[in-house]
Amino acid sequence: MRIGNYSLTQNNPVFIIAELSANHNGSLQNAIDTIKAAKRAGANAIKFQTYTADTITLNVRADDFVIKGTIWDGQLLYDLYKEAYTPWEWHEELFAVAKAEGLICFSSPFDKSAVDFLESLNVPAYKIASFEITDIPLIEYVAARKKPVIISTGIAKEDDIKLAVDACRRMGNDSIVLLKCTSSYPAPIEEANLIMIKEYRERFGVLAGLSDHTIGSTVPIVATVLGAKIIEKHFIIDRSIGGPDASFSMNELEFTAMVKAVRETEEAVGIVDYALTENQEKGRNFARSLYVSMDIRKGELINEKNVRSVRPGYGLHPKYYPTILGKKVNRDLESGTRFSLEFLDNL
Prior knowledge:
By secondary structure, this protein is of the alpha/beta class. It has 12 helices and 12 strands.
């Protein structure tokens, strides 16, 4: 599976996405500066959210539309999204900036009109946000574009995930990535439940990764160990600019440190390979091997006193020790000689 020029199915590094979300705080220049900062911080991609207040909710002041139990408590959904959205007229310029910076650029659509708009910008992939995982008609419409579909699972039960995956496959699209996500802002680390990354791979036959709202780099590092193919983090050029998502977004310094930690983790995890590195081969010099430990005269028998398994590792492999005990040597041997099977006439 490829997103733009990046393959997720080869042994490439984890695909790291900087999520812009509302972190432009209403300023096009902030958005441009954030894209450039994401590149400096080591991101592979920048992701937007494509909606308007009218495409994502209703301008209704009833209690159902008042946010409860989050950092945005008391706000109307319509007012929050009106503040947070990325103006559609910015998209073309932002995509061009991302391309110039060498970043892959795509977005999360929240209705069919956003999909049509993003198609006009030739996006290489689509992201389904956690709260849209139940919108099966939207997922089908996205999947029918035959581009990779990345789905966050922040509020999903098992049936929700199955319905979403089945919707993609029903449209002939098997390029699916499920991202383990906890839809709390910020998310408690004890609710990360990263073991689900492996579960998603095995249960649904898809690639898996992480969309993270915790504070810090611990969760992305663990996700890397568990085989995440994608890591997505909210990114802000500076939390002091404010905005709805600022409090749980990484700044440039933090994101840079996270990328470094993820890349070092990948190197530490490595691949299944029994071959030794050059340094490991040198280390074998300190292994045990068989050496003459007392002078031996021709015709004498080998015993546990005159041949021993000791360091270093230049002599005969210790696996031969039971075989050579009690055998006669065919020459005089000085203490400190690397033992060899050539010293025996018959085995």
